[in-house]
Amino acid sequence: MISTANKNRIHWQCRRGMLELDDILQGFLDRGFDGLAQNERDHFENLLTCHDNLLLEYLMGRTVPADPDTANVVNKIRATAQVAT
Q1: b/e string for 57-83 if b means 16 or more Cβ within 10 A?
Q2: Which of 2, 37, 41, 79 has the highest Cβ tally under 10 A?
Q3: How many Å apart are CA 53 and CA 15, to the nearest integer?
Q4: How far apart are CA 37 and CA 20, in angstroms?
Q5: How would you class 14 by CB atoms within 10 Å of its CB: exposed for 0-12, middle for 13-18, buried for 19 or more?
Q6: pLDDT reported for residue 85
Q7: What residue segments make up the domains of the chain, in order of their start?
Q8: 4-84 adopts what CATH topology?
Q9: Are 40 and 76 a contacting pair, CB within 8 Å?
Q10: Cα(63)–Cα(29) distance, rounded to whole angstroms?
Q11: CA dist list (Å): 66 to 34, 58, 70, 78
Q12: Burial class of residue 11 (count of CB atoms within 10 Å of its CB; 0-12, 13-18, 19+)
């Protein structure tokens, strides 16, 4: 289980310079993050270290991460975003 302090830290890392990223990442944090396994949470946090432009490319499906585990998390984020729209 993730602590409230860690979830709050991740919440702030999801706040980006692009409204599209904010919407997708905050939505996933609210609707999908708690369902991730610990290793998937680690990959999600690693994604948050990417530059906004690359992260947007991943989440729009224009580029696929080379790491299959990271790509899996990106797919879960994208699936959650598509359900929400």
Answers
A1: ebbeeeeebeeeebeebbebbbebbee
A2: 41
A3: 14
A4: 25
A5: buried
A6: 47
A7: 4-84
A8: DNA polymerase; domain 1 (1.10.150)
A9: yes
A10: 22
A11: 24, 11, 8, 17
A12: middle
CB 78 within 8 A of CB 59: yes
pLDDT at 84: 57
Q: In the numeric block, which tokens belong to residue 81?
A: 């975003």
Residue 13, classified by CB atoms within 10 Å of its CB into exposed (0-12), middle (13-18) or buried (19+), is middle
pLDDT in tens, 13-62: 999 989 999 999 999 999 999 999 999 999 999 999 999 999 999 999 99
Whether the model pTM is above 0.85: yes
Structure tokens at 73: 């998390």
Contact indicator for 16, 48 with CB cutoff of 8 Å:
no
- As a whole number of angstroms, the distance between CA 59 and CA 71 comes to 10
